[in-house]
User: Fold this.
Amino acid sequence: MTEKIRIIGGKQLKGEVSISGAKNAVLKLMAAALLAKGESKIYNVPELTDVVIMLNVLEQLGAKTSYNKAEKSLTIDATNLTSVTAGYEFVSRMRASFIVLGALVGRCKEAIVALPGGCAIGERKVDFHIRGLEALGTNVKIENGYVHAKARKLVGSDIYLDIPSVGATENIMLASVLAEGSTRIQNAAQEPEISDLANFLNAMGADIVGAGTSEIVVNGVKQEDLRPIEYTTIPDRIEAGTYMAAFIATRGKGIIRNIFPNHLTFYTSKLTKMGADIKLIDPTSIEVSCKRRLEAVNIITQPYPGFPTDLQSLAMALATVADGVSIITESLYENRFMQVPELRKMGADIHQERNHSLVKGVKNLTGANLRASDLRAGASLVIASLMANGESTIDNIYHIDRGYELLEDKFRMIGADITRFTEDDSAIITKNKGSLSESQL
Assistant:
């Protein structure tokens, strides 16, 4: 049955919301757990469809997993891996699962991994991943939609990335942990999730320095140096940015907890420039409010620490009702304006040319029947619906479920009129589809 979300807009949001663990971090930690023999435990794991998919990948490789709903923890026992093949049925559904390539090459010196899938936001090649592994001594070929990688041994190397690819940086890090000698990754991605992965690996016994900068050095260790660990995932900065936008969009006021504010510096500065009031109330909590009409702002997405591409669609939703004309440039992915046609249905005045969008603020948006094309475009439609006049419905919400834990519950807690229903009988569904089940795992 097709699930949809219904939102009655115009409600001012107030209250507190707590941010879940970072999807884009925990998925990589799950892959990293394959490197050490034994049972590792990861805390602050969100109940998301993508986490379920990654669990399926790990279990396909022979790892044993279990999830504790009460403490939001995930246990991964990678003592005995029985396969080096990550199949198409799972990897094709989520790009992040491709990260097992580096972990398998590192531990087993062999991997057969399906080419990745995920949101259709533009071309995201794996060339940089492959070149990095080849520089470490891996023989790589692509056949029938699978990457076949094999190495007699891995030897550290100097690797320069033409662009600071997050996935390539992570795959090279994972593969080089058990390589002989040192690996230097230049023009490395600097996202907080990269630092979190390095912290996890270092706690496990790896020797990595420079994560969070443009140059990362991985000094290889031996398999017996690695040990299973317990580790807590960082908060999800994109989810935090979404709730920041929600309070601002509805001219509400709220506190967002379990957030690392320094992960959102550039985004916060743009929201402040638009007219929002954002205050730090303790090291992991902020207060967000907006008492007046927003003002237009120009945005260019860039690799971290620049403006995050994952928050571009949310900023556009806010710009649709801001005074003046905002110019939003998407410099990373060619198909990341998928929300534009849907926002136009709501009355937004947006002119798009290639990777530029001119957004002329209108007085208000009106509710409409909408369709989420990908995860972040779907999130922007939620924000737009919250501030629109009237009722909106959003279809294809499985995209949204990939990245937002208990979306309706959290929004209802701060005053939103939001329900999930099935197209057939409008029965309310109270939890995210694809959420983790202890009995299932």
In short: The chain has two domains: 3-20+235-422, 23-232. Confidence is low (pLDDT under 50) at residues 118-124, 425-434. The radius of gyration is 22 Å.
